[in-house]
Write a structure and sequence with these properties.
Order of helices and strands of chain A: HHEEEHEEHEEHEEEHEHEHHHHH
Order of helices and strands of chain B: EEEHEEHEHHHEHEHEE
Oligomer: heterodimer
Structural class of chain B: alpha/beta
Number of strands of chain B: 10
Radius of gyration of chain A: 33 Å
Strand order of the largest sheet of chain B: 6-7-8-3-9-10
Number of strands of chain A: 12
Shape of chain B: globular
Structural class of chain A: alpha+beta
Distance between the termini of chain B: 20 Å
Number of domains of chain A: 2
Largest interface: A-B, 22 and 28 residues
Strand content of chain A: 15-25%
Helix content of chain A: 55-70%
Radius of gyration of chain B: 17 Å
Largest sheet of chain B: 6 strands, mixed
Helix content of chain B: 25-40%
Distance between the termini of chain A: 33 Å
Number of helices of chain A: 12
Strand content of chain B: 25-35%
Amino acid sequence: MIARLVEYLVVSARQVTRKRMRVFLTALGIAIGVAAVVGTVSLGEGIRYQAVEAIKEQSDLTLIEATADIRGGAIQFITPAKIDELDAIPHAAASSAVVREAYATKRQTYLEVVGIDPGGIENVIRPKYLKGEPLATGSRQAVLGHDIAETLQRYEGVRLGDTIPILVRRYDENGMPVDEEVDFTLVGVLQERDDAFDQVMLIDRGVAQELRGDDTTFDGVLIRIDSPDAVFAVVDDVKTLGLTAEGAFQQIESVNRLMDVVVLILAFFAGVSLIVGALMIVNTMVMSVFERTREIGITMAIGASPGDVVHLILAECLYIGLIGGVLGDLLGVAFSGVINTFGRPFIVAQLGDTFSTFSDGDITLITPELLVIGMTIAIALSLVSGLYPALKASHLNPVTAIRTGV
Amino acid sequence: METIIETIHVNKAYNDQVTALADVNFAVGKGEFVALLGRSGSGKSTLLNILGGLDAPTSGEVHIGGRRVDFSDRKALIALRRGSIGFVFQSFNLIPALTAQENVEYPLLFNYRDRAARAKRAADLLSLVGLADRAHHYPREMSGGEQQRVAIARALVGDPLIVLADEPTGNLDSRTRDGIFELMRQVNRERETTFLLVTHERELGRRTDRTIELLDGSVVS
């Protein structure tokens, strides 16, 4: 079978080399379409890459939180068994169960409180301290995120070592709310992280559970992943356990969702030019079959089956597709270079603030996959376009073809 | 003598009106060199196409090599053309994109023989027709006579029982024509290949073993 295909290709190569100019021009038609697709998609992929890199650089990507979720009609709670299962996920370097609660200070500043084991803070959140020191287990101490620390200092004058009075609402035997004041000592302030922890007050988990009056349930498990490349695999594993995962990786997910659509639209409009290329192939091959009517009749008279004729014509189209694909990839890379040179100043001016990395990176990205796709499009399209001429040729009546052919 | 071509009550009509062949009956033996004579329009080419499995008769039977040809079986017809028949056409009809050698090999491509055996056989046949030194020339680089010699080599490459030649000397000057004719006779004598030669030239007919003359679709002698 392979040997047969090689034979067809050898014979067709002779036909193709005999009409170099025509084949080249036809292939160029496909090449321009492929180049348009490769060029525009490389722009989309380049922007996607830059955006993802910017997120990776600016946020703590390897920290995620698994939280309870409703899956398959049943609520999946964070139970001790689940915590063990989460611990067992490959690439989960460290984890710590947390309790989340919302309180207010005596002067009505809203506080998002995370109760976590002090060891977990160091192993999982791995914070850097702007000032102060870590929490001590079992004591009413607090470590503040950068932003909330600033807020409390500005509006309530709370400084390191000061007391933060917090109102914890309880209900008396008549069901009436009673606010009890609980004092925490501010022992540490974290450096700015550009994530949710900037707004959080960290306290000891045991203390948090005591305030809530419940020491059996958790609200989530923070997981530190050992490598940025493993983040999405761990997220998948968390989801397999029936839980939801949250973290900076979600920004990458939303960038990818957006860019998928953008790239698809870009590719679609660029792909319109492929239709023109395909019609050129149909035209060239129909002409070629017409010119060679007699030759095809002879070929059939000396023993070729209609299937042989189809294969011979399609083999010629395959060459057009191959040439078109190679030319298209080369032109696409060139096109991508042009976009990069002339488009980057414009894009940086528009988005420079958001993605500071743009100014020193390329805005287009050519991946091997993209080149393979370009090649595949060219070959597939040329074969599809060649089908009609090939079938037309194979349906020729050899007698009339030999008698009337050119 | 073994009968290699036999037609029994073969009729051919186009659109149920124009009669191309009317009750054609004849037989050709193995190794015969037969001329099929007739004016243009007498049905010679139609008969040749039917014998070669390119066209189907309206009614009647055709036997090639002792077997009845089933004109409804396309695969069998292709096998017949590949295995038993060699064609030589009037206007040479080589494939312009291929060299002489490749043109001779071309039918074997569809017989799926291996490449080395194919090249050897084609080279042998080119020597036979006296064109060993022209193997790598393209048809456009050869004279009409040379092209027709290549076409004869191509017709012989599949080792056919019968060579069907449709006016093979029609486009050649008289000296070249004699050369081509002698080549075919020589092949006929040396290899016992049966030749059926369609021609309108009576003079050529006289130099064959036997002539069959067609007039208005019927055998007259």
